[in-house]
Every structure is written in structure tokens, then in C-alpha cells.
Amino acid sequence: MAYGIVHRFPGATKEQYEASIAAVHPNDGSLPEGQIFHAAGPSADGWTVVAIHDSQESWERFRDEKLSPALSAGIDRGFTTPPEEITFDVDKAEIQQGLQTLGLVHQARSAQITRNAAAL
Fold first, then answer.
1. Number of Cβ within a 10 Å radius of residue 44
2. CA dist list (Å): 29 to 57, 79, 107
3. Are 72 and 20 in contact (CB under 8 A)?
4. CB-based burial, 60-94: b 16+ in 10 Å, e otherwise
5. What is the pTM of this model?
6. 34 torsion bin: left (phi>0), alpha (psi -120 to 50), beta (else)
7. Which strands form 46-53's sheet, in the order they lie side by side?
8. What is the pLDDT of residues 7-47, one digit of tens each?
9. Options 2.160.10.10, 3.40.50.880, 3.30.70.100, 3.40.50.300; which CATH number does 3-91 get?
10. Are 29 and 105 in contact (CB under 8 A)?
């Protein structure tokens, strides 16, 4: 079953997000293994990241092997505090194709989302 994660980083900025993502996501612009959706943006008090993994196990593997060690070690110009986290089993997920034409998703990510949407 797909597994969702919402991370809130109070006081964080886009620049910190970009540095953090550069440290934990593949360099080719793809998503980490098992991650099938990623969205992020400014929120009222900082920065919010939403991810969907193909399973709780793939999330835990990414968290334990990549994300947590990087955040614990410190990422140059990255997030400086651990996130507030909400996790959930994904019962339903829909992705509107129009997102691509509205420019809300980068073209490199659009192809990844389209390919992986069927996995939900």
C-alpha cells in the first residue's frame, strides 16, 4: 500500500529546501527509489514537503539510510531542524494531468509523476 509523508519545517526557506533536496535526492532529477510523488512549497510558517512512497517500507528505508543521516550530519545551507512529521496510509491519490500545463510541476518531475501514477 502507498504511504504518505508530510514534513513541515517551521521557519525554513526555499533555499534550505533546495540544498537539502540536492543532498538526499538523486543527482539526475529523479525521485529516490520507491518515492512516486513529491511536492513542496512555502507554507504559512516555513516550508512543507509532501511525498508518497510505494510502501511504508520504502519510506522507512529512504528515511533511515539517506534522509535522517544527512539531516543529522548537517546539510550545508540546508534545513537546520528536524521536520514536524505526519504519516498516513494512502487510500486514494489522484494527479491532475493539467498540472503539467499549469507549470506547477517541473517538466523533469512531470514525466516521473506520469510514469509512477499508475503505481498508486
1. 7
2. 22, 20, 10
3. no
4. ebbbeeebeeebeeebeebbeeebeeeeeeeeeee
5. 0.78
6. left
7. 35-43, 46-53, 3-10, 84-89
8. 999 999 999 999 999 999 999 989 999 999 999 999 999 99
9. 3.30.70.100
10. no
